[in-house]
UniProtKB/TrEMBL annotation:
Naturally occurring in which organism (per UniProt): Hydrogenoanaerobacterium saccharovorans
Example of a GO biological process term: carbohydrate metabolic process
GO molecular function: carbohydrate binding; glycosyltransferase activity
Keyword Transferase: yes
Name this polypeptide is given: Chitobiose phosphorylase
Amino acid sequence: MQYGYFDNKKREYVINRVDVPVSWTNYIGVNEMCGVLNHTAGGYLFYKSPEYHRITRFRPNGVPMDRPGHYVYVRDDDTGEYWSISWQPVGKPLDKARYECRHGLSYSRYICDYNGINAQQTLFIPIEDPVELWDVTLHNSSDRERHLSIFSYCEFSFHHIEMDNKNHQMSLYASGSSYQDGIIQYDLFYEEDGYQFFTSNFTPDGYDCVRDAFLGSYRTETNPLAVERGACSGSTEFGGNHCAVLHKKVSIQSGENARLLFMLGEQGYENAKVMRKKYSDEATVDRCFADLAKFWDDKLSRLQVNTPNEGMNTMLNIWTLYQSEINVMFSRFASFIEVGGRTGLGYRDTAQDAMTVPHSNPQKCRQRIIELLRGLVTQGYGLHLFQPEWFDPQEKKQSFKSPTVVPTPNKSQMIHGLEDTCADDALWLIAAIVEYIKETGEFSLLDETVTYADGGSGTVYEHMTKILDFSTEQVGANGICKGLRADWNDCLNLGGGESAMVSFLHYWALQYFIELACYVGKTEDAAKYGAIAKQIKAVSEKVLWDGKWYARGITAKGRKIGVQSDSEGRVHLESNAWAVLSGVAGKEHGELCMDSVNEYLYTPYGLMLVAPAYSTPDDDIGFVTRVYRGVKENGSVFSHSNPWAWAAEAKLGRGTRAMKFYDALCPYHQNNLIEIRQSEPYSYCQFIMGKDHTAHGRARHPFMTGSGGWSYFAATRFLLGIRPDFNHLMIDPCIPSHWQGFTAVRKWRGATYNITVQNPNGVEKGVKTVLLAGKTLEGGAVPCQPTGSVNDVTIIMG
């Protein structure tokens, strides 16, 4: 079943059947203001923090689905009939009207054809100002003059998530609204600067600021009393729940158009006047929308591919990079699932996000790297979840005298012990730093001094050594790294046990560090950490190899898990993919363990995390055994881990299988299976129900998942094989044997590389010849070319 299609020319996903099973979301904003919107304009807006500075209210997991939102009502004043441009919340029968949603890059457009009126509402946030614009156009396609009333609607939040959901004896009497000269001002009285505004490019014919006055008693956004009667009541009040309603009457001749602009922004009346003047100019709005397109043009142009796989082209050229960027920009806590109920940076997630897109967003990746370095303690582990402003010496403290603002904790509250430490967190940062340097050439980063979370400071290079030393020290009785509170799998709580995945990650991080140390002349460090890596490899092979695959770990009581003798949890994806991806596994063991992954974990929707799923609680293994079978960590297709298997197969040179795994998870290929998938087909989701669940194939939790960044990283750097090094560009594809080749354009350090890969002999991996401007290069790598140059590179596989 299909609900929409990809419009690659416009870089939009078009939802032309709007009654999708679940919300299909999008993100607007690229700086400090962000909106999370669905296909019917439901959602919320926040400034800087989705938890502490929510602007519009949202009722998560509610009925009707995903309300309230940022709505525009259209009323026919001659008949009294009314509808909403975004279908919901009025919800006219779909056989009586045509509705469409176009999710684009940092904007969403809602289109409605009903009763002779074509209406469009475009929501976006200009790059230069924290103000959400509602660009509304109306076209009269009927044969008579139309008299319409247009009403805006959004509901204001109490700013803090907790305050929206409890303690109403205080919050209900500390929020107020007022109206002056076409501007609604919302005021949170206990915050010194707790203002938002809503205004427009016209003189309103009416307004309402009090939610209950606009909606009416025993009504919802579906049937507001003010819209029904065609007039607002001019309500304002100190206390209560507040909204932003501006009413405008318009008359449109047959065949003519009208355009209305609404503005929802930060601060109060004075700033609203400035923003109103600026964005009442239609040319300015059009320019800002064009600037947003240029912003994404620049990012997407850093790598564009043309392969025989149209799904891969669509995802890599547009949607997977977009999803990866959203994660880097806004971390993981602004969605319809997290709903801003917690904020800050998750250490492992942010490190991986920063690793994946330094080519398209080097500034933000660098910012995230520095923030994570500040969240590292001197012992060498990272704080699993923290607020970056706690450790930023330049951060200006908020001046709000408000119970909604959580004060900065003291160091004893911030720094937790080993019992609360996730063993893998900081290891991901090693790769992020090295990948950033390979992309930018900024070796000076290594000498930059950065503070530690528990006091003192050191260079970035010194921080890296502390991370590696920590994992070297934290080993169990068998010589495998301890799992501590958890490794990447938060539900696998081995306690005092040992984690195969952490040992493999440690080895992987060491390879990155040793390569860097050699390049910058730190030969003693390279030798020291090389010896550690050699020991890890030997111990891992001795302790963890189980004949056909690698064990997942060892419990605190000394029992291996993820082995052939297990009746449940026999094969785990993480340990086997990382054994190969890290380089610990040789060719024979690597092929055997990945064959086991294919045999036990493959489904048409991707690779399951573990099989068979656990059905008997076992606290020695962890909470994973208390999760429903086939859900999340207990045997679902957990998307984040799937790209590790693609990369592992590419390292083994098996391009056909790597692409098989890629295609199974790829949302594009599930566009016609929405009755099964349910979730949006342009975004990777956190997980898909596994074979042991009745809803096998159902996807959940889109956008805010590490599967976006890792899918992009694994597909571009391992399958297509295009990856920067310290002083050259490597192009070493691993592709299906039936591919005759592909082309790509990669921008790197100011130069452009037009890449043509030819596969005349139908191999899956191996480069026979590398040509730069028609001349054969020795060694196969393409040296860094001068800034501004355009370079033709030909790769002949064989």
